[in-house]
Design a protein that fits this description.
This protein is α/β, with parallel strands linked by helices. Helix content is 41%, strand content 21%. The strands form three sheets. Strands 2-1-3-4-5 form a five-stranded parallel sheet, with helices on both faces. It has a four-stranded antiparallel sheet with strand order 6-7-8-9, covered by helices on one side. A three-stranded antiparallel sheet has the order 10-12-11. Strand 7 and strand 8 (140-143) form a beta hairpin. The N and C termini lie far apart (43 Å). Residues 124-218 bind DNA.
């Protein structure tokens, strides 16, 4: 299983990574919120170890970004913040567990195993529109009950639009949901993904809002 460590303390990252690898985990690490966003867009992790005190942005930003796009990856917050209010905020924001530094690596590993086990039985609401169904937990798309093979970026484009049927989203909003703020996207990239989605799901699934962007279904 692959875990992502989001932590800016290089020595702590090294210690956690060595400990988890010794127990069979495959480990990636990033040091800030931007890196975490890009990593979770590019790869699906079994769990995430998340520090709150990240440079430039809070770990809460990472957590809220995950949950806003229906990413149910289990998150264990590991932080020096030991106030009850911080624990409550973290859990209410969608964290699966909360550990205060300093901690034992054995405890972290055990908690990771526990949240992964719980996540396997987690239920998240499916998104449905006419004969199209998206399962955010399994990241599957069905049309009339038949699985449709989408690339990861096609899937993200569909999910971003389907979350708000009938509401137009501009191209910048869609690019941010699909890629994050990388600034390296070709101007017609979203249009290409919309073209692919129409070919796979039907021409009437996504409406073009000329001079602005797109919406899922008919515009309200």
């Amino acid at each position: 299983m692959k875990v992502l460590i989001v932590e800016d303390d290089a020595m702590l990252v090294d210690a956690i990574a060595r400990g988890l690898r010794s127990e069979g985990w495959d480990v990636d690490s990033v040091g800030d919120a931007t890196g975490a966003r890009l990593a979770t867009l590019d790869c699906r992790y079994a769990a995430i170890v998340l520090d709150l005190g990240l440079p430039g942005s809070s770990g809460f930003t990472v957590l809220s970004g995950l949950r806003e796009r229906y990413d149910t990856t289990p998150v264990v917050i590991v932080t020096a913040r030991d106030k009850l209010s911080d624990r409550i905020r973290g859990l209410d924001a969608g964290a699966d567990d909360y550990i205060v530094k300093p901690f034992q690596l054995d405890e972290l590993s055990a908690r990771l195993r526990a949240v992964v086990r719980r996540s396997q039985g987690r239920v998240a609401p499916a998104l449905r529109h006419q004969d199209i169904e998206v399962d955010p937990v399994r990241r599957t798309v069905k049309k009339a009950g038949v699985l449709v093979d989408l690339s990861m970026n096609e899937y993200r484009t569909l999910l971003a639009l389907m979350e708000h049927p009938g509401r137009a989203m501009d191209r910048d909003q869609l690019e941010d949901r699909v890629y994050g703020s990388t600034g390296t996207i070709e101007s017609n990239t979203i249009a290409v993904y919309v073209h692919h989605l129409r070919a796979k799901l039907g021409n009437d699934v996504i409406t073009t809002v000329h001079g602005f962007g797109y919406c899922f279904g008919a515009k309200n």
